Amino acid sequence: MFHIFQYQPLRLITQNSVSSVCLRLMLSRPLAFAQIWKSWFSSHSLVGKKNIILMGPPGAGKTTTGRIVGQKLDCPVIDIDDDVLETTWNMSVSEKLQDVGYEEFLEEEGKALLKFSASGSVISLSGSNPMHAAGMQHIKKNGIVVYLDVPTTVIMSRLKSKAMDRIVGLSPGVSLKDILQFRKQFYRRWFDIRVLCGGDIAAEAVAEKVLDAVKRYQDLELETFISTRSSRSGRSTEEDSHKLYFSDVVTQGLALDGGLFVPERGLPKFTAEEWEGLIEATYVERAQVILERCIHPADIPASKLAEIVETAYGENFSCSKVAPVRHLAGNQFLLELFHGPTASFKDFALQLVPHLFAYCIPRSCNYLILVATSGDTGSAVLDGFSRLHDTDKQRIALVNFFPEDGVSPIQKSQMIGCQKENAWSVGVKSDFDFCQTAIKQIFTNSDFTGFLTVEYGTALAAANSINWARLLPQIVYHASAYLDLVHQGIISFGSPVDVCIPTGNFGNVLAAFYAKMMGIPIRKCICASNENNVLTDFIRTGVYDLRGRKLISTFSPAVDILKSSNLERYLHLITNEDGQLVTQLFNQLENQGHFQLQKDLLGKLQQDLVAGWCSDEDCLAAIHSVYSTTGYILDTHTAVAKVVADRLQDRTCPIIISSTAHYSKFAPAILRALRIAEINQNPLSQLHLLSSYSALPPIHWGLLETLKKTGNGGHQVCAADVSVLMSHIETLIQNHFM
Question: Catalytic one among 62, 209, 346, 440?
Fold first, then answer.
């Protein structure tokens, strides 16, 4: 058996390799020597008995990178091709491949891997090792597998000048590109850590990225979460000792102090080269890479995360591009976010979050998820949680509260029709702001939540955009939209774009801003409001004032919101994470109905955000105008953004307008905008009428099927009273879990 004994780091100070210079330093400057020793020992602790295993396609630089990493850690370096295979076979890899052929070579290579053993080493795999399952299972037992992810175009360029006789599977009729694409499935199956490697990156820089990635992998403490209302200086020792991680905040939803969770050390940043490496990637590939950097593998391993992402964005979306970018007119582009099963941007989070949630929660407890919606969230969350495995449905249930008279008829039909055995919709005789505030109050009512846990073994969780996991998928599509413009040749990477987003709860705008923080060159985030324009006033003046305001029912109900929950996360950011100030501002909003930003904070805000609003009349006029000139039908929310973009853009760069819902969901308003005199009140009839226009995009497949199958079934309706909502919750728990 080929075996490398564990490296013994203490030998360094007992052998002649310690120079007299080091000895003099140790005696004359003990503090300096201690710092050097601490740094050296920290590097060695990365390895210990584990191996660092470098994996990737031919030409990824595994051998060179492995040597550099080994030098930095001062530990053994093993190249599987040169040090194991050729030694075992007593012939070159190319000779063996020519001798036995493709399939037999993979088997022989796997057998050699099964006989191999090492510890405390840096190991560079062959490009084809991951194709042998048993061999990889064996070597992975004692190692951390690092995937050097190099764009296919870069690999092909590198291999042009090299001999190709060592590439397994290459033959007449099979291209190198096909082989590289085929092998990706095996690399994704086995890796623990992904390291993005652009075209011009030096091997030394790749080695540093490998070491940084391994450090992150081994230290979960680097990625803890805090509340927007916690103060760094004011936190107690007990609070510091009770660390919260991604899996905790997914299940907890809202912080105990009423604040929202944010990553303590901020979001990861991608280099320009890393982003450029994703230009050719599919949407699913981009999502996997971005989410891997935002979710620690100790919370969700990379292989499981990949499985979840594939499930979320695979067959559930009607467009293969998932979130395509379409040119509208001039410098305006539409980011189409309505190709999911329930026809709104909420599907991006809510096809993913249920699976994250099911993986993260402990098996010893049942969970009831509370949701408040102003329209699109309801059907999206019901659909998402209905796709869980049956075993998960038995321990995870959901109740969706929505304003009974504050959503469109089709949205209401969807929410009622999407009810399942573990998911229910409850209409509330009030508006969205009441529903959202009531849920916050229920979460922070420790007597009630404690009673549910003790009496029924059931905990509460949130799936609204106040849940951190809801924001991450939205970051992905904003980043992907920019990369699509680069891929289409509209811009080169680094050129700025503006984004214009219809917003009420501020989550979608916040996600775009987070994408900017992570390295996407977004210049301005334009917030588009309807007549409930409290956000517009706030961004222009710094005064958030709800006094005397009443919610107005508009044609764009998903942004009929006065209290923008996710604004709290943004203010926490621009106040330099001043939890005390954030607490003061939102307590004042709750108790007095208003607050005002200091002048310096307003200046920071206005560097990032621009805002405008649109009347119902202008919204309908925009729908008619765009259809008349382009044949494309905007939904009412996208029309709000289009109007605001027309008014506020300076036309010096492209502007991406978020098309957050399919127009089919708002058929009465759309038919009115298209100047149809008589409108049938039956939602299905309205969709059939719209389909006769043969417009772009076509009628949404999922929405049409839902209305055909379900019609307008029954649902519960309750008064606008928190105690009544709590009673409903208890009854639902009794019926489902007991």
Answer: 346
